[in-house]
Amino acid sequence: MKKISLLFAILMGITTVSGQDSLTLTFSTHTTDGSYLRPDSITIENLTRNWSETLLYPDTTYTFLLHTGVLNHLDNKQLQVTPNPFDGSTKLCIPSTREENALLRLTDIAGRVCAECHCRLQEGGNLFSVSLSLPQTYILNVETPSGKCSAKLTNTGHAGANSIRHEGVTGESHPEMALKSISTHEFELGDKMRYRCYTPTRVSSTLTKSQFVSEQIVLVFDTHGIPCIDQPTFRDYDGNLYNTVQIGNQCWMKENLRTSHFPDGTEIPVGGSVSLGDTVPYYCDFFEYYNIVIPWEERGNFYNWYAALNVCPNGWHLPSDSEWTVFTDFLSSQPEYVCENAFHNNTYIAKSLSSTSWWNGDAVGCDTGSEQSTNNATGFSAIPAGFCFGSVSFGQEGEDAHFWTSTDTNDSNALERIIQYDAAYLFRPAFPKNFGRSVRCLRD
Questions:
Q1: How sure is the predictor about 110, in pLDDT bands with cuts at 50, 70 and 90?
Q2: What are the b/e assignments for 235-257, b being 16+ CB within 10 Å?
Q3: Are residues 29 and 112 in the same domain?
Q4: Are residues 254 and 323 in the same domain?
Q5: How far apart are alpha carbons 366 and 342 in whole angstroms?
Q6: Same domain, 423 and 344
Q7: N or C end of the chain: smaller count of CB under 10 Å?
Q8: In terms of Cα–Cα distance, which of 232, 123, 114 is closest to 168?
Q9: Which pTM was predicted?
């Protein structure tokens, strides 16, 4: 009997998923201190199917129509159906960049025509009212001389006779649809998605997940640190966007570099079988073989010293050992960046540089891993990404953040700065140049 019940439960689960027509995400944004921050845009990327979409404020809701094999595009136009599913009636908006004739046809799943509308689209948002008498799934087809598109409509109520009525045109889109966007891209349950939010001066943390259910997606902006006033963000050659942070008189990257190209577009080799005597630049790209916890968007790439020397985008550079010393001396001179302790040691600045997450826990007061919610007073947001060596070694995730300097000590070694989870100060060792480390660029 238990086996039968289990099989029934599994079949019911499959039926429930298979019967799902759409999946809706509602985005909300706030800062790490809980304050609301109005988004300007939200990027939605499907990493499984290699497409991306951007929501522009006031759009904060995005609906995926689960894959049905129906074509869902009309050149650059996009059907907006709000709400969907709906109780008997709904609104339809067809944005058009030109004036042209159109045929709108509603059919049921069996292919029977339930309603039609012949009209002339105008430039702007063409508004329609849709009413349906029977609760079921319908297919809306729109045909114009410039193309065709289709959308699935799910009716759950009764609204009298079936009809499609053209109600006029607005300059952009219907105000009732201001918080709704319907995807025209292919999507299936479980696709790996990536979400990020932008304002004119800030970028939120990145959320990457496999999407199975409708839910609220919360995107958070870090409140630690002040962006560089005249350059709050910048991009690398690959188009990756980075936040900046002003600390003292220096403008730093707030995130680890993650480009795979030098600024002139030359591709950086991926680390393979290397030895300590090799001088070829490389970065590591083998993390599928390890149980990596920190997302790539936060971890960034690891570069050997030969790549790190020239990898920073134009206008930025790999900081020297002396520039790092100016940086740490400034922090040591500012009480708000020094962890209070019984010895009043002004070198205890590691917590002020370290992110509030990802570090291994540690119970000692001023160590980075202790009480991580009090970290990151500077906004530098150092991540304990660890290190790599060629394609054969990865380690210290959660324990250490390693940053190259541009200063070498001999033909084989170069200086770096290290933040450790179980220490309160930064280390300044020399390591082999062929080890892969994180890179933070400093503005010229």
A1: confident
A2: ebbeebebbbbbbeebbbbbbbb
A3: no
A4: yes
A5: 10
A6: yes
A7: N
A8: 123
A9: 0.60
- With bands split at pLDDT 50, 70 and 90, how would you rate the model's confidence at 70? very low
Strands (E), 132-177: 137-144, 147-154, 163-170
Domain residues for the domain of 253 are: 233-443
Whether the upstream peptide bond of residue 335 has omega within 30° of 0, thus cis, is no
- Residue type, position 120, single letter: R
Tell me what pLDDT residue 276 has: 61
Residue 403 inside a domain? The answer is yes
Q: Distance between CA atoms of 348 and 342, rounded to whole angstroms?
A: 11
Residue 219 sits in the same domain as residue 241: no
Q: Which of 88, 102, 172 is nearest to 131 (CA)?
A: 88
pLDDT band at residue 92, thresholds of 50, 70 and 90?
confident
Asked if pLDDT for residue 6 goes beyond 70, the answer is no
Q: Are residues 272 and 150 in the same domain?
A: no
User: Domain containing 138 — which CATH number?
Assistant: 2.60.40.2550
Residues 97, 137 contacting (CB under 8 angstroms)? no
Say how many domains are in the chain: 3
In angstroms, rounded to a whole number, what is the distance separating the alpha carbons of residues 152 and 144?
18
Domain CATH for 61: 2.60.40.10
pLDDT at 69: 39
